[in-house]
Amino acid sequence: MSQIPAELKYVSSHEWLRLEEDGTVTVGITEHAQELLGDIVFVELPKVGSALGEGEQAGVVESVKAASDVYAPIEGEVVAVNGELEAAPELANSEPYGQGWFFKVKPSNVTDLDKLLSAEQYAQEIGA
Amino acid sequence: MTAPKRTPLFDEHLAAGAKMVDFAGWEMPIHYGSQLKEHEQVRSDAGMFDVSHMTVIDITGADAKAWLQKLIANDVAKLGFEGKALYSGMLNADGGVVDDLIVYLTSYGYRMVVNAGTTDKDLAWMEQQKAGFDVTLNVRRDLAMLAVQGPNAIAKVCAVKPTLADAIKSLKIFQGLPAGDWFFARTGYTGEDGLEIMVPATEAPAFFRELLAAGVAPIGLGARDTLRLEAGMNLYGHDMDETVSPLAAGMGWTIAWEPNGRDFIGRRALEAQKEAGVAMKQVGLVLEGRGVLREGQKVVVDGAGEGVITSGTFSPTLKHSIAIARVPAATGEAAQVDLRGTLTEVRVVKMPFVRNGKKVFN
């Protein structure tokens, strides 16, 4: 079934987060999310430098089937976006936890991560 | 809730790795991995669709022809020889579309194929219109139906059915070939060449496997929708329904006005609409930038009013979004679509968008 790497954090709107060594947090959509969406054909990413509140709309992902908002799972400033993903949106289908990442934020408060779902909790959430 | 129905090919879909969904009360394959790859497969080679959920109705009786001339807006008198097919709307008295269908002339009368989601209401409507006519309807649930579509579709079917190859190859567009309990028609819903094949349910799984072995890939409902949309073909319940006139849904060509005296159901309503001027028309929309046009989005036409997208998608062949829309009759070449809160410029074009693998609009 769906891959849910144990070392990542999750939110119920199907984004994953990874705390990097430099203190930034990488955000993407989960394997389960890309399965629900089907073939992804466009992504819209936030602007580098923009400040995002927790739960704020950060982008859009459009598949052949539907358009879906991507939310900021944590408060912070966008420090990088995945330009490769804009050019090749199918990466979110094929490598949702790798080259298909969406954006990186510098979190306002890194301890906010502790409040998010563990892999086990997310698996329960999606009934996996 | 009743459990969804299964076609005779259900087990074959699972074996081929299908993701199954509920569609009009049927458990059907939405894709077998990637909708985009399946779309490309049909445009470039050959794919097969299980369309056994659609309903085949055989029509017999001394009044079959006269009854069909009343029941549907196109005229079965155009069917000059056995196997010939006709596309038509079946209208209500207000001129709304009860369903769209294909009817074939057969040795025993006629064969009609109607949509899955509308079958119950279609049959009830037909029963209601039968009074006074010597007509018998026979619903052929003993048949399965496979659409094999794509530039190599006919060659691959012929490879599987060598004894019928010559007869199948000689079929012209919109023409069918009865062969025992089987029926091969050169029709489809993709804008590619191909066949729709009716086959006894018990023989369908083996035929499916033979086609698979011949290099015909199974294609899900997802790609069926993007293919038909590129081909500019209507989907019932989306591009038209009982509240929409065929004149506002790009179906004007399916209405046989001659002979004048043929009083088909809905004729008077349509004549009144023509007299008053039809307010809306069907067009194609093209968005070459980012974003995907979706069903239900509002279309704004400067100086002419508003319309609505009735089907929209990302076109895998064109790599941008396309849509079918119902817009004010005065609409020219430009319009705007409310794309998630942003009015976005789109081009208005004549459909189809794609035919035989190639872009066809300007």
TrEMBL record, chain A:
<dbReference type="InterPro" id="IPR017453">
    <property type="entry name" value="GCV_H_sub"/>
</dbReference>
<dbReference type="InterPro" id="IPR003016">
    <property type="entry name" value="2-oxoA_DH_lipoyl-BS"/>
</dbReference>
<comment type="function">
    <text>The glycine cleavage system catalyzes the degradation of glycine. The H protein shuttles the methylamine group of glycine from the P protein to the T protein.</text>
</comment>
<dbReference type="InterPro" id="IPR011053">
    <property type="entry name" value="Single_hybrid_motif"/>
</dbReference>
<dbReference type="Pfam" id="PF01597">
    <property type="entry name" value="GCV_H"/>
</dbReference>
<dbReference type="InterPro" id="IPR002930">
    <property type="entry name" value="GCV_H"/>
</dbReference>
<feature type="modified residue" description="N6-lipoyllysine">
    <location>
        <position position="65"/>
    </location>
</feature>
<comment type="subunit">
    <text>The glycine cleavage system is composed of four proteins: P, T, L and H.</text>
</comment>
<dbReference type="InterPro" id="IPR033753">
    <property type="entry name" value="GCV_H/Fam206"/>
</dbReference>
<protein>
    <recommendedName>
        <fullName>Glycine cleavage system H protein</fullName>
    </recommendedName>
</protein>
<dbReference type="InterPro" id="IPR000089">
    <property type="entry name" value="Biotin_lipoyl"/>
</dbReference>
<feature type="domain" description="Lipoyl-binding">
    <location>
        <begin position="24"/>
        <end position="106"/>
    </location>
</feature>
<dbReference type="GO" id="GO:0009249">
    <property type="term" value="P:protein lipoylation"/>
</dbReference>
<keyword id="KW-0450">Lipoyl</keyword>
<comment type="similarity">
    <text>Belongs to the GcvH family.</text>
</comment>
<dbReference type="GO" id="GO:0005960">
    <property type="term" value="C:glycine cleavage complex"/>
</dbReference>
<dbReference type="GO" id="GO:0005829">
    <property type="term" value="C:cytosol"/>
</dbReference>
<dbReference type="GO" id="GO:0019464">
    <property type="term" value="P:glycine decarboxylation via glycine cleavage system"/>
</dbReference>
From TrEMBL, chain B:
<comment type="similarity">
    <text>Belongs to the GcvT family.</text>
</comment>
<dbReference type="InterPro" id="IPR027266">
    <property type="entry name" value="TrmE/GcvT-like"/>
</dbReference>
<dbReference type="GO" id="GO:0005960">
    <property type="term" value="C:glycine cleavage complex"/>
</dbReference>
<feature type="binding site">
    <location>
        <position position="196"/>
    </location>
    <ligand>
        <name>substrate</name>
    </ligand>
</feature>
<comment type="subunit">
    <text>The glycine cleavage system is composed of four proteins: P, T, L and H.</text>
</comment>
<dbReference type="Pfam" id="PF08669">
    <property type="entry name" value="GCV_T_C"/>
</dbReference>
<dbReference type="GO" id="GO:0008483">
    <property type="term" value="F:transaminase activity"/>
</dbReference>
<keyword id="KW-0489">Methyltransferase</keyword>
<dbReference type="InterPro" id="IPR028896">
    <property type="entry name" value="GcvT/YgfZ/DmdA"/>
</dbReference>
<dbReference type="GO" id="GO:0032259">
    <property type="term" value="P:methylation"/>
</dbReference>
<dbReference type="InterPro" id="IPR006222">
    <property type="entry name" value="GCVT_N"/>
</dbReference>
<dbReference type="GO" id="GO:0019464">
    <property type="term" value="P:glycine decarboxylation via glycine cleavage system"/>
</dbReference>
<dbReference type="GO" id="GO:0004047">
    <property type="term" value="F:aminomethyltransferase activity"/>
</dbReference>
<dbReference type="Pfam" id="PF01571">
    <property type="entry name" value="GCV_T"/>
</dbReference>
<dbReference type="InterPro" id="IPR022903">
    <property type="entry name" value="GcvT_bac"/>
</dbReference>
<comment type="function">
    <text>The glycine cleavage system catalyzes the degradation of glycine.</text>
</comment>
<dbReference type="InterPro" id="IPR029043">
    <property type="entry name" value="GcvT/YgfZ_C"/>
</dbReference>
<feature type="domain" description="Aminomethyltransferase C-terminal">
    <location>
        <begin position="281"/>
        <end position="354"/>
    </location>
</feature>
<feature type="domain" description="GCVT N-terminal">
    <location>
        <begin position="9"/>
        <end position="258"/>
    </location>
</feature>
<keyword id="KW-0032">Aminotransferase</keyword>
<keyword id="KW-0808">Transferase</keyword>
<protein>
    <recommendedName>
        <fullName>Aminomethyltransferase</fullName>
        <ecNumber>2.1.2.10</ecNumber>
    </recommendedName>
</protein>
